[in-house]
Amino acid sequence: MSDELRNAIVAQARSLFDRGLSPGTSGNISARTYDGYLMTPTGSSFDALEPDRISQLDAAGRHVDGDPPTNESPLHLAMYEQRPDARAIVHLHSTYAVAVACLADVDPNDVLPPLTPYYVMQVGRLPLVPYARPGDEALADAVRARAVDSHALLLANHGPIVAGPSIVDAACAIEEIEETAKLVLLLRGAPTRLLTREQLAQLRTST
Ligand SMILES: [Zn+2]
Fold first, then answer.
1. Based on the structure, what is the number of domains in the chain?
2. Could you identify which of 5, 67, 184, 188 might form a hypothetical disulfide with 41, taking C-beta atoms 3.0 to 4.6 angstroms apart as the criterion?
3. Residue 129's pLDDT band (boundaries 50, 70, 90)?
4. What CATH number is given to the structural domain containing 48?
5. Distance 189 CA to ligand 1 centre (A)
6. What are the residue numbers of the active site?
7. Which of 105, 156, 99 is nearest to 126 (CA)?
8. Contact of 75 with 91, CB cutoff 8 Å
9. pTM of the entire structure?
């Protein structure tokens, strides 16, 4: 089980890196285990993770084995705390989502508009978390406050973080955020047809 999860983290990280979604040593992935969490190590690059060196944390979030965890581990722990059903979390500094996270004129309750059905089904709503320095407890507190109502959040001037029922689900949802952010920037200034209220209701009842 734990070996399978370790391999799944490594495979997903490699896939995100290969597609340019985790530049440098940015981004982190975690998974809930029966007695704690697995997390990508601090300073690690998504193209060079080793299953045996993945950080292991106990249920209280203390580092117990492997390399030291990402310094963004408080963000993951804050989200797991509020979302008991979450089995995995992916956080990225992917270019288009970060670009939207830097825009001054977004709706902080829901940053991205409903452009496509798959975005609506996999993400739904994307609240903006006010900026705080990475690693600061204030950022984890802000995530904790908003994660109650949404499994997907956009950290202002930083990047998206998504919880899901599996590593693949969380990764697919965060990629929908990245692609929708790209569409929003491509369409900026162009008259745009959003999904209607009826179309949104239809999607929500079919999921
Ligand atoms: Zn980050």
1. 1
2. 67
3. very high
4. 3.40.225.10
5. 29
6. 72, 118
7. 156
8. yes
9. 0.96
